[in-house]
Specification:
- This protein is of the alpha+beta class.
- It is built from 7 helices and 10 strands.
- The relative contact order is 0.16.
């Protein structure tokens, strides 16, 4: 799971009730302008189209035509990528990264969920009756941008992160995106030194899971920001695996080798009850706020150096993200 500079909000900023599909050439020009403005473009020849939305969304026919394209993915060499909207009623740049190329054969689950959400939003555009107004700059004096608070913390769900997770039919369960996101934020704070109480439960497939939080001192000093195979000690691997499993048990993780899941609505309670985090922490639904109010809340938290655990879901898939920064275009 990539952290967020890593993850981005999808704001539908409509400029007109008249839709215009972007051709591949027009999308390439948008990508070129973006890379040029970001200062990373050395040569226009470095920009290459690596995928259309139809290549990446399993439910769509392979290789959609431009008229059906929700987004285009362009790499700028091997150093960065941009996802360009295929419709001018959405933001020109939906998402980007300056820390590596987009690899079609190795798309992490969080990115798959994000791409599915982009496609679903695109499919809803023509059904919109009351189009939202473009996002305007808040009157609050937030910083123009906040650089990623988590720095180079970039954890995943496999080895060594899942080393203490239960096995199912002889295969190790992955740690789960909810536990992974929680653990990354806890590593950022390096809190607590020791947990509170204990908890046990049985998964739906009959596996008993338990953790004694009060008897566990978390070994923050041995947790690395990234784990490269062969480049960490047993103690360093154990430290992060213990934290991951603690987070999973705290939220009653349903463990599976193919994908472990938990309800994100109980994350705040778990952090308070088992890890001693601030009792003012809470779960807030996007449904009850307009775009400006929502972005103001996000900016307030990030300006006060508090990363946000954020859950996004479509009808078929959900994922837990970490929002730890935003740029001048309100992309987080």
């Amino acid at each position: 799971m990539r952290k967020i500079a890593t993850i981005f909000f999808v704001w539908l900023c409509f400029s007109s009730v008249w839709a215009k599909q972007l051709t591949q050439d027009e999308a390439w020009k948008v990508a070129r302008s973006f890379f040029n403005q970001s200062g990373s473009l050395r040569s226009a020849g470095d920009i290459s189209l690596v995928a259309l939305s139809g290549d990446l969304i399993e439910s769509l026919p392979l290789r959609s035509t431009s008229a059906q394209t929700a987004f285009y993915v362009f790499n700028q060499g091997n150093s960065s990528y941009a996802i360009v909207s295929g419709d001018d009623r959405m933001r020109p740049i939906l998402a980007y990264s300056h820390t590596g190329a987009f690899v079609v054969e190795n798309i992490p689950s969080n990115m798959k969920a994000l791409l599915t959400a982009y496609h679903d939003l695109y499919m809803q555009l023509d059904k919109q009756q009351n189009l939202p107004k473009p996002l305007s700059r808040s009157s609050n004096s937030w910083s123009e941008d906040v650089q990623p608070l988590l720095g180079d913390i970039n954890w995943n769900q496999d080895e060594p992160y899942f080393n203490l997770c239960p096995e199912v039919n002889g295969k190790r369960s992955v740690s789960g995106c909810v536990a992974t996101a929680m653990a990354m934020v806890m590593k950022y704070f390096e809190y607590p030194q020791k947990g509170i109480g204990s908890h046990s439960y049985n998964t739906s497939n009959g596996i008993k899971c338990s953790f004694d939080f009060g008897a566990t001192s978390f070994d923050w000093g041995n947790m690395l920001p990234q784990y490269v195979p062969g480049k960490y000690t047993d103690a360093q691997g154990k430290a992060v695996a213990e934290l991951m499993y603690a987070c999973g048990v705290a939220v009653d993780m349903e463990y599976s080798p193919d994908g472990s899941g938990a309800y994100s609505g109980i994350v705040a309670d778990a952090l308070i009850q088992y890890f001693g985090y601030n009792k003012n922490m809470g779960y807030v639904s996007r449904n009850y706020f307009n775009t400006q109010e929502w972005m103001d809340m996000v900016k307030k938290e990030l300006n006060e150096k508090r990363p946000i655990l954020y859950n996004g879901a479509s009808k078929e898939v959900g994922h837990e993200f970490v929002l730890d920064g935003y740029d001048k275009n309100n992309l987080t």
